[in-house]
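ok so for the tutorial part 2 we go from a plain amino acid sequence to predicted structure tokens. step 1 is just haveing the sequence, like this:
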Amino acid sequence: MRDFKAARAPEPNAKWLKLRVRLLFGLFLSLLGVAFGRAVFLQVFEQEKLRGLAQDQYVRQIEIPARRGDIFDRRGTPLAQSVEVDSIWVDPSMLPDLRAASRALAKALKVDADEMAARLGRAKRFAWVKRQAKPQEVEAVKALGLPGFGFTKEPKRFYPQRELGAHVVGMVGMDGHGLEGLELAFEDELSGQNSRMSGFRDAKGRKLLVQGALDPLERQGAAVTLTIDRHLQYVTEKALAKAVEESKAVAGMAVVLDPRTGELLAIANHPRFNPNNPGAGSRGEMRNRAALDTFEPGSTMKPFVVATALDQGAITPDSTFFCENGAWPIGRHIINDTHPYGWLAPRGILQVSSNICMSKIAQTLGREKLVAGYHAFGFAERTGLALPGEGRGVIPFPKAEVALATQSYGQGMTATAVQIASAYGALANDGVLMRPYLVSKVVDPDGVVLMENRPTEIRRVVSSKVARQVVGMLESVVDKGGTAPRAAMAEYRVAGKTGTAQKADPVARGYSDKRIASFAGMVPAESPRAVILVVVDEPKTDVYGGLVAAPAFKEIATAAMAHLAVPPSKTVAPEVAVAAVSPAPAAAKPVAVKATVPPRTAIEDAVTETPEPGTVRVPDVQGQVGREAVVKLLAATLEPQVMGSGRVVSQTPAAGSLVEKGARVTLELATRQ
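step 2 — the prediction. this is what the tokens look like for a chain of 673 residues:
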């Protein structure tokens, strides 16, 4: 039988079907080749780029801010430290009701609700709620239970001594960078190096660390140690505040300097401010005026003119000048003294602070030598305290006769308080000017000393003989006939000079009726351990330095001598010692007395009982507060050495021992538990 299907010719549709199959196969094969080629391109040539894009989806480089270095005083007391605190942030897109959440946050944080709502409304996925929040604020926000909140640790600067030394230390901003003082000057050293490390983030964008915590030392700044003494700083600020407030002045400055080394033991300014709450004070209150501002110093400059004239041989200690009985015309101007004086030698000129006779000394010295003398004492040049904006001062060349006269008593020129104290330090240091410095050393976390300052001699200004002569003349200033008897001390010889300068009026281009009252002195005069300068700006009650600034000097000097354990340079009468020191609870050596004879105090025994010439019995200071014990030993002409803090628990040599005057007595102090 014949097969008709087999004999039938293929239909045209079958041919096209095969063709379409082949075309589709070729198309798929081409697409597969393109996909394979793309895969090879991406995996081989775009590998690094794609890996980075992928990691960017879940891996973040997290910056760990460095812990800012600490600032210490000379004895290791912290003046500035950094602590880790929580900062609060939120993702506003996750808040169900932005307005309600803002009100709740404002109530918890005690801020304005509208301001909070505006801040959150401007942000899309991130907004700070409160940076460097307090622990109770963090707990209050957590208690709200709102979604989208996060908490991150940030370093916050803390100043444990509050206002103490704030003008010197300065402050930092919210971002942790220095804004004022040493915080700004040593920004690079204190800030340290921020660390970066990788971390995952979850589906909500929260950062998760994938490595262990970094070594804190690796992200900590260097520590800065100052020459400032916390105790002397406190005493200086307290005395300065009292002087400014009692005289109803607008401001004040004070400097305490060690003339042998140039170390600044205290720099005080008033008004004060609290760097923990800088918003409470004005910008002017934060300025370290003692180191940065220049002013016309007035008569505190007279000792430098006398010293230069003596050193140059222009005058002798016995030279006399006629003070014109209080008024001396120079051209169209008249130079006046506060009281009429006749003939005076340099000692008397400094004692009564005669402007007229000082002008005549300047004339004898000459213009060039006067200006050169001021420059030699360090004026018109920065002291190099490493503080940004430190004042330099100016000493214009006195072309006119009246300019020569006024510059001889500190008008028509400017200087900083630190410059004046440093210049007095040169007189106190036998004529050698030391470089004043504020920072003792900078040490990194590994203990490597990055910077260290040591006593540095700048130059010899005048001879040792002249320096001692001028210091001796300045002792007369605190005598009864001088301008500053209120600066005199019962136990120590004091040398110093008052200043009452007129303030310039920049509008009228002349001098106003406002004054700057000052007193600069050194103690003890025979071998100065401290130079102290007190400046009171625009006092209202009295305008003279001997009345306004001298009492503050005495208060600071009294505390400084006790703190530095300086033996008295005067013989202390028993009644003076009893008045100056609190009576001890028990005498070093019991003395039997009759009922009709008043019992002697331990201080009287220590001062007056001297069985052999040049010897003294050690008083009993057991159980007394350290400062009282030090004063008691000083009154007995003994040198105390203090170890620890609190009350005296032991003393060597023992109470009642017979020792030479000036012998050292070691006191061990401890705090009672």
